[in-house]
Amino acid sequence: MPSNDVPVPSTEFSLEQLDNELLLYHPAKTLTVYMNETASLVWQLCDGKRTVSEIVRQLQVAYPEAAGDMQSDVEQALAIFSEHGAITFC
Amino acid sequence: MPNRVISFAGQHLAIDFPRNLTELIAFLYHDNCSDLRAVPDVTLVVTDDDGQLMLSRGSTVLYKGAEPSELATSLIQQTIYHLIDNNKDGMALHAAALSRDGKAVIFPGASGSGKTSLSTWLATRGFNYLTDEYVFIKKNSNVIQAFMRPPNVKVSGLAALRGVFKLDEHEHSTIQGKHVAMIPPRLLNPGNKPENAEIKLIVFPKYVQAAPFKLQRLSKAKAGLSLMACLVNARNLSGHGFDEAARLVRNTPAYDLQYSSFEQFGTQLERILPT
Q1: Minimal Cα–Cα distance from B222 to chain A, Å?
Q2: Residues from chain B contacting residue A32 (CB–CB below 8 Å)
Q3: Domain A7-85 class?
């Protein structure tokens, strides 16, 4: 996944924050997507402006104890979002 | 031809039936209320032509055959379908439900997840059986309305209940077919009564043959994910009921339950059920 890509969240999903996790729902596809705590954090940083590497960096600063795994965790979460059509890259 | 109006969650349905099937209709709808002033949205017609039974709606034939248990199953399924299909006032969930002192536990799940066997078994242990199939939760409410039908226990599920309910002792007060038996809730629990109870617990059951017992607390998001899969009238609701499902799991503890026999439960299930 190119680190300069910018993930842009789809506006077609409804969102519910439940504790530290997220549920997204796409009415037209009747699709519900579960996001664990890590994926939820990544989603919240997908504002259509930050690049992938900026998201990774920001989370590494916030969670230094998990910094080593952050690149792969973020890429994994973004791949799942992309697979469900919840984000596109530009 | 006699007529009976069945009312549920603000919807009304009429059934026209021949006089010789009065007992069957009374058996199926004993615990459902009728609003005699209501104008039914749909009418189902049952006929009996020398033992040839037919269920129809308008010109559409929904069942034709000679087996009363199959007619009973079709009639109940069609009744539920028509009462729920157009409902826009709240969530209709594919779920079993029981209550105790006004507190309800719901067991949402697909067919084959063990909802009926589990709710039937719990009824024999003093819980108030409400439904094995559908519950309705009005918008912004935690109170359930349950469509109380006699539990439709599959033949495979009867074996598991043998220790607590002996079907052959109730031959004349149950409906027994090749694949299912319908058991009046009062036979399972003599004090059983319809009740609009408040949801205090959600348990997603999963019957798996020979599997170990597992009871696992779910996060709210995981519970919401599972609940959305059991919402049957989503298309009628604003935002497909997503916000209502989220509201429910936000306020109600939820568990995943895997089991292969009731003997596995011990006190573990009882411990989380409403007291």
Answers
A1: 7
A2: 224-225, 228-229, 242
A3: alpha beta
Tell me phi and psi for residue B215, to 5 degrees: -135, 110
* pTM metric for this prediction: 0.91
Express each pLDDT in B163-209 by its tens digit.
Answer: 888 888 888 899 998 888 999 999 999 999 989 999 999 999 999 99
Does one domain contain both B41 and B133?
no
- Note the ipTM here: 0.86
Residues of A with CB under 8 A from a CB of B: 14, 16, 18-19, 21-23, 25, 27, 30, 32, 34-36
Q: Are B94 and B19 contained in the same domain?
A: no
For residue A69, give Cα distances in angstroms to A54, A57, A74, B200. 15, 12, 9, 39
C-alpha to C-alpha distance for A80 and A70, rounded to whole angstroms: 15
| Total of domains in chain B | 2
Both B160 and B218 in one domain: the answer is yes
Q: From the CA of B125, how many Å to the nearest CA of chain A?
A: 34
Q: Are B246 and A18 in contact (CB under 8 A)?
A: yes
Pairing of strands B11-16, A21-26: unpaired
Compute φ and ψ for A19, nearest 5 degrees.
Answer: 55, -125
- A21:B222 CB<8 A: yes
The domain limits of chain A are 7-85
Q: Which of B43, B68, B85 is the last residue of a domain?
A: B85
CATH number, domain of B243, equals: 3.40.50
Choose between B140 and B167: higher pLDDT.
B140
| Claim to verify: residue B106 and residue B79 sit in the same structural domain | no
Pairwise CA distance, residues B43 & B242, whole Å: 32
Closest Cα in chain B, distance from residue A4 (Å): 31
Q: What sign does the CA torsion over B5, B6, B7, B11 have?
A: negative
